[in-house]
Design brief:
Layout lengths: L1 H7 L13 E3 L5 H14 L9 E4 L7 H13 L4 E5 L26 H8 L5 E5 L8 E4 L2 E5 L8 E4 L3 E7 L2 E4 L9 E6 L3 E4 L2 E4 L12 E6 L2 E6 L2
Parallel strand pairs: 1-2, 2-3, 4-6, 5-7, 6-8, 7-9, 8-10, 9-11
Antiparallel strand pairs: 10-13, 11-12, 13-14
């Protein structure tokens, strides 16, 4: 009987699943950085709720208590941290999120060697969607461009490694160039977006010129600034 039980026992089933996480890179003074987070939340309430967040501490030198204080401040803002990067493991306590490694950065630094690496990235492929992206749906295609023949509803999200082309209205969120493609663009026939982002630089609905709303538009990066203009 015991041998039969061993034969029937099934192995634990493990599945892989990937998520697009926001990576926060705190800068000093931390209080000023937190005020920028507050401003973002004020412009787009609930935007970070339920989303994976990773904290990259490589730009600051925080003690163990300082890290704990930062995590507490983020928790008070309903931002739950999935993991931590850029810090020695000894500075983390067992109650803190785990130390992560091997993540693919969404922002290319401005140094010359990094730019050379960016040029070596394989040219993105493309994804074509013939149906609209409805409210609450998420499309993630980090390998390249995304083309949508319909509209993107309010509360929907499109994430692409390359450019995003929308042949209808964009009422939700569009994030292009997430793997460091700074030349990526966002095109739409009717801009009513909640948020636009390219290579980590973003603008919310309040930042978009009211004169452009409801009209064809494109967004691209000019240095570290996102430009949004009419699409002629």
């Amino acid at each position: 009987m015991e041998a039969a039980a061993k034969v029937q026992r099934q192995m634990v089933r493990l599945r892989g699943r990937s998520y697009v996480a926001f990576v926060f890179v705190p800068t000093v003074p931390i209080q000023d950085w937190l005020q920028e987070i507050d401003a973002t939340i004020a412009r787009s309430p609930g935007f970070f709720a339920g989303r994976p967040v990773v904290i990259d501490l490589s730009s600051v030198d925080l003690s163990q208590s300082g890290i704990g204080h930062l995590l507490s401040n983020l928790h008070d803002r309903n931002i739950r941290v999935l993991g931590i990067e850029g810090v020695e493991e000894g500075r983390l306590t067992p109650s803190m999120p785990p130390l992560l490694s091997g993540g693919r950065s969404c922002v290319v630094e401005s140094s010359a060697p990094k730019k050379a690496e960016a040029k070596a990235v394989t040219k993105p492929t493309s994804l074509l969607l013939e149906s609209p992206v409805r409210s609450g749906q998420t499309v993630i295609f980090p390998e390249g461009d995304v083309t949508i023949l319909g509209s993107v509803g309010s509360g929907a999200e499109v994430v692409a490694g390359g450019s995003i082309h929308i042949y209808g209205a964009l009422r939700g969120r569009a994030m292009a160039g997430v793997n460091g493609h700074t030349s990526a663009r966002i095109y739409c026939q009717k801009i009513e977006a909640e948020l636009l982002a390219i290579d980590g630089f973003y603008q919310t609905a309040d930042d978009i010129d009211a004169a452009l709303r409801g009209k064809p538009a494109q967004a691209w990066l000019q240095g570290n600034t996102m430009r949004i203009t009419a699409l002629n």
